[in-house]
């Protein structure tokens, strides 16, 4: 029960990694605010958590809207248990490169993937300060560590890295830690079934996609006091993609020749 007595917000919690994180955090004792724009799967998840003996509250949240965050803050204050954990997980992608991308795509991706965590940290950090400190986990991507075919997505995740490190610096005064997870290929609705899925899998040294629970386990570590002296760090959860994928094809080729 590593989050016993704590309150956690998980954004984009109706699907994929966010849903798995919300369930895990509830099993670890947290009261979880399950936040998403998708109401019915979000409510169903909160009900499933409650039927398994956990504590969860669904809150419709559009991470790109400041008013929506203000409504969430009001709900958290009404619950009266403070706030200790925020996982900025909600994210979207549009699969066009720089030349094909529209301004609507660019604005849409940046508003969810970059403005969203910024608005979330500004809304939630004061509640964490008043609760004696907290942990923010921002979900980035390998596309925030290297070049990526979707320029707007990469720009949003690189931006989130800079934002996270700046927030780690500023919020340390309030005992609020800010760290990032950079997933590689994860089997979720965002990417499963696309051509990018197979291409990434073939370049991943562990030769498979991650399960969402393998990312959620790292989110739990960063959310809990187990990581109490970590702030401002990047944690790739990518089966070795970032460290060694450039040699993946060379290695396969050498084995075939020998
Ligand atoms: N799946 C991967 O391989 C992968 C790899 C690297 C990074 N990521 C990142 O992981 C995070 C989670 O992705 P996933 O794969 O679980 O995707 P997913 O599509 O399964 O889930 C994303 C969730 O975010 C929600 N969402 C979208 N816009 C929102 C908004 N404006 N406000 C609130 N919620 C909103 C969606 O409704 C959905 O429930 C994203 O930030 C994504 O960029 C995913």
Describe the structure.
The protein is α/β, with parallel strands linked by helices and 258 residues long. It has a single domain, classed as Rossmann fold. The protein is built from nine helices and seven strands. It has a seven-stranded parallel sheet, with helices on both faces. The chain starts with 6 loop residues before the first strand and ends with a helix. The mean pLDDT is 97. The structure holds nicotinamide-adenine-dinucleotide. Nicotinamide-adenine-dinucleotide is lined by residues 11-12, 14-18, 36-38, 61-64, 89-92, 112, 139, 141, 183, 185-186, 188-191.
Rg to the nearest angstrom? Answer: 18 Å
Q: What's the structural domain tally?
A: 1
**Shape verdict:** globular
Alpha carbon gap, first and last residue: 50 Å
CATH class, please? Alpha Beta
The small-molecule ligands in this entry are:
nicotinamide-adenine-dinucleotide
- Determine the mean pLDDT: 97
Strand order of the largest sheet: 3-2-1-4-5-6-7
Task: Provide the descriptors you would attach to this structure in a database record.
binds nicotinamide-adenine-dinucleotide, 48% helix, 9 helices, Rossmann fold, Glucose 1-dehydrogenase, alpha/beta, 258 residues, 7 strands
